Amino acid sequence: MGHHILVVEDEAIIAMDLFLAVEDCGGVGLGPAATVSEALALLSGAASCDGAILDVNLPDGDIGRVLDELEMRNAAVVVHTGFALPPEVRLRHPHVEVFQKPTLSRVLANALAKKLDEAAR
User: Fold this and answer.
1) Which pLDDT score is estimated for 60?
2) What domains does the chain contain, in order, with CATH numbers?
């Protein structure tokens, strides 16, 4: 992969598993962030963010603002959640691929790698 990938997940064990899956695919992990605020802070300090694996419902709100920022950066995104995207987030980001929990971390990392490969063509 070789890309900088933001991991946003509030469950610590899942977050670390996702982070390691990103590294196993050759990516450079950013985070993991457990809140919207942490994710936005990581993005503001990052010179590069090529993609992200995101949980939706975090302690300080839904992931909509993070998706907005990632879209401005043309970053590839996959969402991993136990719930559907909130309707207002789905309306703003209809292209986002959503995987229901539980989905294996390597499946998510591979799906993101595929999106990044397609974007590079």
Assistant:
1) 96
2) 4-120 (3.40.50.2300)
